[in-house]
């Protein structure tokens, strides 16, 4: 998945028009061969009744805390839930206190943060030219080439928000240490979340610039 996201992100920077599909529907047709059914209906597994294109999920149900005993488990891909949460909840939850005049920086990734959040997507090659004071930062786990020195050269306003996204809780802590994030960002255990997916969830941690 990381390679595909990186490819389409770079493809977008070239200015070429791309088309992305979040939902596919298929229909099975049983054909007879020599008088027998070629595909037995008994072997077809039932599909989920959840339809992302028509069913609406509250923002609070898209994510949950990792150690919660009973939590909603949706039959939806974890990355799709993450995208939905960032699109619907960025302005109300993650970056509600950030002034619109200070954009949110997304490094080596792009997520739609809704219409009310000002955002900038950049590659590591563009970092030396970034002189803006940012109101927030999104670090996605595809940005493994990022180094702490590169990050320290970026400018953030006091109270800026960080969203660190990783595959699991262990990787979250490894990235905090690798990038020396505790030197400039304040973290709390209660600000750690995961997507509410049945499959392997995606984890993220939020922090505040000090």
Which strands sit side by side, in order, in the main sheet?
Answer: 3-8-9-7-6-4-5
Instruction: Average the pLDDT over all residues and give the rounded result.
Output: 79
The helicity comes to: 10-25%
Shape: globular
| Number of DSSP-assigned strands | 9
Specify the number of helices: 5
Task: Summarize the entry for a quick read.
It is built from five helices and nine strands. It has helices spanning 2-13, 59-62, 78-94, 148-152, 169-178, and strands at 32-33, 36-37, 63-64, 104-107, 119-122, 133-139, 155-166, 185-195, 203-209.
Summarize the structure in words.
The strands form two sheets. The protein has a seven-stranded mixed β-sheet with strand order 3-8-9-7-6-4-5. Strands 1-2 form a two-stranded antiparallel sheet. The longest helix has 17 residues. It is built from five helices and nine strands. About 8% of the residues have low confidence. The radius of gyration is 20 Å and the shape is globular. It has 210 residues and is of the alpha/beta class. Helix content is 23%, strand content 24%. The two termini are 33 Å apart. Strand 6, helix 4 and strand 7 form a beta-alpha-beta unit. 25% of the residues are buried.
């Amino acid at each position: 998945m990381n390679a595909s996201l990186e490819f389409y992100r770079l493809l977008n920077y070239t200015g070429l028009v791309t088309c992305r599909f979040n939902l596919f529907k298929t229909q099975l047709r049983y054909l007879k061969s020599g008088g027998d059914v070629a595909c037995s209906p008994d072997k077809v597994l039932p599909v989920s009744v959840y339809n992302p294109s028509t069913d609406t999920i509250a923002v609070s149900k898209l994510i949950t805390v990792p150690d919660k005993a009973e939590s909603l488990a949706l039959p939806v891909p974890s990355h799709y839930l993450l995208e939905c949460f960032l699109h619907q909840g960025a302005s109300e939850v993650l970056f509600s206190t950030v002034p619109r005049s200070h954009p949110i920086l997304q490094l080596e990734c792009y997520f739609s943060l809704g219409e009310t959040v000002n955002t900038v997507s950049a590659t590591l090659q563009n970092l030396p030219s970034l002189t803006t004071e940012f109101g927030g930062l999104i670090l996605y786990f595809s940005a493994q080439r990022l180094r702490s020195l590169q990050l320290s050269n970026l400018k953030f306003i006091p109270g800026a928000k960080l969203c660190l996204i990783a595959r699991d809780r262990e990787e979250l802590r490894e990235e905090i240490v690798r990038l020396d994030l505790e030197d400039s960002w304040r973290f709390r255990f209660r600000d750690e979340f995961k997507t509410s997916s049945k499959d392997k969830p995606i984890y993220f941690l939020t922090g505040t610039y000090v």
